[in-house]
Amino acid sequence: MASGDDDDPIIQEIDVYLARSLVEKLYLFQYPVRPATMSYNNATHLTARIKPKQQKVELEVAMNTMSPNYCRSKGEQIALNVDGTTAEDTNVYSTKMMDKQAFSSIQATTNTSRYAAAVFRKGELHLTPLQGILQMRPSFTYLDKADTKHREREAANEAGDSSQDEAEEDVKQITVRFSRPESEQARQRRIQSYEFLQKKQAEEPWVHLHYHGLKDGRSEHERQYLYCQAMDTTENTELVKTSREYLSMLMPPLAEEKVVKPTGPSNVLSMAQLRTLPLGDQVKTLMKNVKVMPFANLMGLLASGTDSTAVLRCIQQVALLVQGNWVVKSDVLYPKNTCSSHSGVPAEVLCRGRDFVMWRFTLERSLMRKEVAAIIKLPPEDVKDFLEQMSVPRVNRGWEFLLPTDQDFVRKHPDVAQRQHMLWLGIQSKLEKVFNFSKDDFVPKKDPQMDPVHVSGDERVKAARENARETHGVLQRELDARRLKGSRPPGEVRVKQEPVSDSEEPMDTSGSLTNGSLNGHPAATSPAADAHNGHASAHAFTPELQEFVQNTFRKHHVLCLSEVKRLFNLHLASLPSGHSVYGHVTDRMLTEAILQSQCKQILVPFPPQSGSTADEQKVFGLWESGETFDKHRQVLFEIFMKNYRVRRNVIQSRLTQDLGDAVTKTDVDRLLKECCMSLGGMWYLKGTVRS
Q1: Which range of residues forms the domain containing residue 366?
Q2: Phi and psi at residue 62, in whole multiples of 5°?
Q3: What segments bear the compositional bias annotation Basic and acidic residues (predicted)?
């Protein structure tokens, strides 16, 4: 140190004073979304309030509505959305225009022991410790109020419509239950929960403040307290510390910073803290909190560049594959020597019950809570807990698995899917012994959303046999046709007079409809055609017929069978004379062509008194066209499988529930225009009602 004094001479000595007058009242406000050259010093501050314990501040600042940069129409529209048309004392914007902006604070740091405000005057440095550092950011709570107003208006309109068009709801029985005494362990978990902390924070009252501008006389008076007021006393006039001690006080060791932790629940871990853990612990922590997750989402939460193969090894240690998605294992949620917080049931019993629920979801999309409870024989609270972890309740459909089947993962990782399938077979055999049931007791229900993750060998053999049987039938019919042709004299046309069955009914009730009959040519022009008319093969429809069906449904999206037949007749009439590529077309051939053209039959529950014919009640819709909009149509078709008429708000809420908040009004308008028609305030699928 002494040798360096000559090279680093002392230029000036400054006395440092510690000011304590504002030690518990001084806050530093930062505005991170506003450049320093555009401060709010000259803005009019309307209100200010603070919650001292939480160090939460809210400010309201007036906006210059006369500025050329202010959009008056937008301001009036926002005020209208928030307050409506009524003039009330509780309105946010009394001038019917957005004339103010709110700011809300967040803590920039929870440890301010190393921060102080300093003022320099006449060779003296005065320091005042900071109580808090707050970042003031714009608050958009007015959007929440506008949303609430919108929901209230929709609820009022819906209530008015339902009172006119719908009957009153049936009276439902209410079961009253008394809660059990809370255990100490449950109480500790409740106290540490995020919901409890939010409630405690909301209980702290606001303290209203008066704002004084930078040049206000009161502000100038308060700034004097930034200077030490006891400079004449002899207390602590000198710093009796060595150089090392002084440096240690200025820059304490990093270990001391670990003592101060953010205020929050003990079970909450930030993403920055999470990524400091080993990969296995990261995966376990994420799955324990999320419980059900696609593999792609898991990779998105981990740090970029993480090896997917290593993640696959880790995920199989803590989760099981259900419908292509990963569900956390039961023993991770319920470790040994623990018990249920609801009923006190041991962890081993809880794991068996939850494994049964997971296994059932590998077979079908939806479960009924009563059926599950009757088998695993656990308290209703625990059964509901299992279902809420991996499914959502649906009206009249029980509990549906939370996520759609992830076929992409199964296709990319068939070895993992096969290994998980074998693991589930082992779990199934254990469950059969514990709960005394057979796998035949649970035949998977056919569900259009339930794509099979694994096809067993027995199912493949069965499908091969059915294909062989169908092929044999086609060959046999061709052989019969050849025999009939060989047994007739040349040029003779033999017409069979037997009635045609319902499934083989021609498209026109007056007789078989062929292209030749529409263009002035005989319906049967050869023995082969005659044999086809007499004993039609409904499966041998032509590629031209399927192309017609595909083009028709890409244009109309929803059609009943009678409408398809009408359009087909018009198409045949427009063809040139002698054009007979379609041959003899029956209802069955037409139906099969529709079903093999990415379409599905929509089983609309028509009322008995609807007056619709059988063909009008056979409704088909375009299920897949390769567009992202296919999902919207599929949700709409599922809605109409429950009721033949619905309201617009039901369709919109179901789309939002299944596809997320990205569904816009434009999407709903397009969907209704393509597939539906309106009558009497209700919406119907096209062709299902006579306008």
Answers
A1: 277-454
A2: -70, 145
A3: 465-483
